[in-house]
Amino acid sequence: QVQLVESGGGLVQAGGSLRLACAASGRTLKYYAMGWFRQAPGKEREFVAAINWTGGGTNYADAVKGRFTISRDNAKNTGYLQMNSLKSEDTAVYYCAAGGIYGVAVRDYDYWGQGTQVTISS
Question: Would residue 30 be called left, alpha or beta, if left means φ above 0 and alpha means ψ between -120 and 50 degrees?
């Protein structure tokens, strides 16, 4: 079992930056791929970014490519999502996830955090 807790969300102006963190407890994070997803009001949860077990492979949704960077520090049992050049359409609850599949689908991940709100003002 892995417990995940996100932090770092908040309210920022368009063009600004935020860094989300995902702290894991329980089983060590190094056995799992990690992903970030987001869900805006009235919309489905959507893939944002993923990183493989070692951090050597990453994947991004087209909407965030070039602006967001996913990373992990297995020694600290923590994952990160650096978000730059934020836009109003990035407003959503952001969730981190961990699982045995390095994928882009919600079903690829077994463990989820509670989410952190990110709001971008224009």
Answer: alpha
Q: Alpha-carbon distance 47 to 35, whole Å?
A: 8
- How large is the average pLDDT for residues 93-103? 96
At residue 67's C-alpha, the angle toward residues 36 and 108, to 5°, is 20
Query: Between vectors from CA 27 to CA 20 and to CA 44, what angle results, nearest 5°?
Result: 45
Chain segment 12-33, per-residue pLDDT in tens: 999 999 999 999 999 888 899 9
Task: Check residue 8 and give its pLDDT.
Answer: 98
One-letter identity of residue 14: A
Helix (H) or strand (E) holding 9: none
Distance, CA of 66 to CA of 35 (rounded, Å):
17
